[in-house]
Amino acid sequence: RKKMIYLDNAATTLYKPEPVRRAVYQAMGTMGNSGRGVWGPALEASRVVYSVREKASEFFGAWGGASVAFTGNATEALNTAIEGLVKKGDHVITTQAEHNSVLRPLYRKEKNGAELTILPVDKKGNFSLEEMEKAVRENTTAVICTHASNVTGNLFPAEKIGKLCRRHGLLFILDASQSAGEVPIDMQKMHIDVLCFTGHKGLMGPQGTGGICVDPQVKIPPYKVGGSGILSFDREHPGCMPEALEAGTLNIHGLAGLGAAFDYLKEKGPEKVMEHEERLAGIFYEEVRDIESVEVYGDFSSPDRTAVVSLNLEGYSSKEAGDILAQKYQIETRAGVHCAPLIHDALGTRERGTLRFSFSWFNTEEEIYKAALAVREIGQEWKYEE
Q: What is the pTM (predicted TM-score) of this model?
């Protein structure tokens, strides 16, 4: 049996750095419940949580550890931000490139009296900053959008969007699910008020980890309420960060792994990791772009991209092609809509979806050439059958 080639890293990085795996394992035998005791294992858990907050703040250019609250994933972080900051009568701007983690909370808010503008994207998956500025109204309160498309790999100009928001006094809430760990982010420099991230993709941390980084001037009311380890006699959940956005027991074991992931990225150099992943994506794109039966989606004229290439093969749905890759070649990809429904209207892939290849630090050039050859062979088989 051939060795599996894993190219679904935009969904989750399967292969984690060895220090990440070791940290999770060690935490399971050494850490208690953070903030719930003054004995050794509880204190050790508290120390780890504190250190990971500091590491996340440094990594994302936030305002110190107290500006970082942990969540189970980016979905929870985005729901926390949108539920807490969008009110009835507010107007919010977003884009066609969004994941349902942004769209569905906003639809729910729209149903309850908020107003929503969804900026269109073009056939390459890009939206217009000029159109974003034109969409600002008197009651506009926020721009909420992704940093990078999980379908096309297009990277959007977060710093320019941040400056636009500053000019108009708007909140800027950024979904960094696809960029955290792969693209440098500096919240203060880029004027990002709220950053929502997950640990299990580009950061190469465990599943079940993520967070929300918040400018201290922005107050988000608690999304969940319950045990916090402090102010237990109060009827209301603590309003101070980070406890305001955390309730119940944190995923201490996962956070230990996330802390090790931040350390690993810092040691390797985020720029070096990004360069490797984007180089592999570039090799794959160059190998498949001229195959007669292949259509590739996204804007490859810009060097600012994440390591994602989505395509379709003539004669196959994305899922059929993905099944052949998995069963015949042991190449794991992601086929379908990728939980980002609106962008497929612009790309013309609503019925077929797309077949997504996404690359990681642990992929090799050899794997990339094998994947490209498999795509070529599948395309040739269809043409031969015709």
A: 0.95
